[in-house]
């Protein structure tokens, strides 16, 4: 049955359009509570169906394989908790008189369409439609980044539009080159753009064209993924966007962009071998780690701190996919755990911003005492993002280090060095925020905000703890399928 996939994609579209029709705050909140539950449930059901049937399709409109289902899990779970958090966060802004009902409904319309565009992108067999859907998410995200209409927010939104447009144009050129190569094998037909057909005929494609296509796709989608040196939009966008949007940018948008890169990488690996794409991906992953580790040390803005942490973790995931083998398992596992931890970090950061009305690290301390919910979210997420056991990011980073050492020991050594730098700098900043005594009093948060934020944080922290200690059997099967997609002869660790 394909209905879970239909529900997963359709629910945010219907909720977004419904937000514009509803005039009462409570009605909009109720609608999005239903949406959050539907996304969480349908994402889990999609995994069940994909594991049971090796795929799921709705005619030619939506199709999901193991990699798509993994992204559905990330988007469904984080999108669900992010929706709950947005209800509390934006509701607090309304209570304080910073937001009118009309703007409240507009925010949720854009937020829902943003989620729908990303879900559409990862459930496509056609790489051209995938590109269109990712471009749609770009437009929604740009409006959300500049939603507060301050000078800094509008500047960040404009910067995001410019850089993302350049990136997405390069990705389009890579898509055109893929089609140029595949139509010589499959003919001038829509089949030449279907991922499943490209995967099966990859060995017959033009190697030179595929190499160039991958370079354009890597730079283009890498820009949206916040990969260094194309990362410059990311800290500004995360800092200035409403915090629910910052959480979704880090946990969802960057992940979807990595997904697009992976689709091109699998085709490239089967056409010219894994060394070409793997070397490029590893190089950009290490560069992202270097940039992030350096800037984490000097940050004075806690939202920008977590933005640079996102650059670091996307680089780690790319490094795993670049080395291949067990690294593919680790890269996929890293994306899920990073999405949960980073969204939790931003949930806590948003509560701090509401309480203190500024983003300065030097003026935030003692959160565990003064703002227990925010302090818990920041501390738990910080420990997870630093790679501390028993969280899943510890496992993925260890597997990547072992896999890199087996292939190129010098890469493993550099990876561990950069990881140690990021570990120390991030934990130093997180401990400053969470521990000690309060430096200044903050504004109390309303019961409504605390209720929804607590639900979002509890769900994320619970999921982080559960999968950190034990990989559920269904996820094991899904990861096994993803590993075999990249290398049919490799067994999952």
TrEMBL record:
It is found in: Cell membrane; Membrane. Residues 126-415 form the NADH:quinone oxidoreductase/Mrp antiporter transmembrane domain. InterPro entries: ComplexI-like_HydComp (IPR052175), NADH_UbQ_OxRdtase (IPR003918), ND/Mrp_TM (IPR001750). One of its GO terms (cellular component) is plasma membrane. Its main location: membrane. Pfam families: Proton_antipo_M. Keywords: Cell membrane, Membrane, Oxidoreductase, Transmembrane, Transmembrane helix. PANTHER family: HYDROGENASE-4 COMPONENT F. This is Hydrogenase 4 component F.
